[in-house]
Write a structure and sequence with these properties.
Elements (H helix, E strand, L loop, with lengths): L3 H23 L6 H9 E3 H8 L3 H9 L7 E3 L4 E5 H23 L1
Antiparallel strand pairs: 1-3, 2-3
Length: about 110
């Protein structure tokens, strides 16, 4: 049975969802200290892939080949995150190799 309180909760949830979608479309982030702390400490395989302009599969392959430190897997492996501090030097080395390969290819 719906009452006034449950309808109000639905309306608030709907407004928050619309606000989140609008922020995403505009490219802005909602201020969330916990999320900001998480983002400073961890990086996802998708973020690494985007920053290197490679596929997420390439990042996963690099992990399985031992080229990146062991990640933290969530949701039965559907999400892969890394501790930024541990993976950043590996990512920068990979970026250097990719830059050289891409420069040679474009010559």
């Amino acid at each position: 049975k719906l009452n006034r309180n449950s309808l109000t909760a639905v309306a608030i949830t709907y407004r928050i969802a619309i606000y989140c979608i609008a922020c995403t479309v505009r490219g802005t982030k909602m201020s969330n200290p916990s999320q900001e702390e998480f983002d400073k400490k961890y990086i996802t395989s998708t973020e690494i892939a985007k920053s290197l302009n490679v596929s997420r599969a390439s990042v996963c392959n690099a992990v399985s080949r031992g080229l990146l430190p062991e990640p933290i897997t969530l949701n039965n492996g559907s999400m892969t995150i890394f501790v930024r501090e541990k993976v950043s030097s590996f990512v920068e080395a990979w970026r250097t190799v990719l830059d050289v390969k891409r420069a040679i290819k474009n010559d």
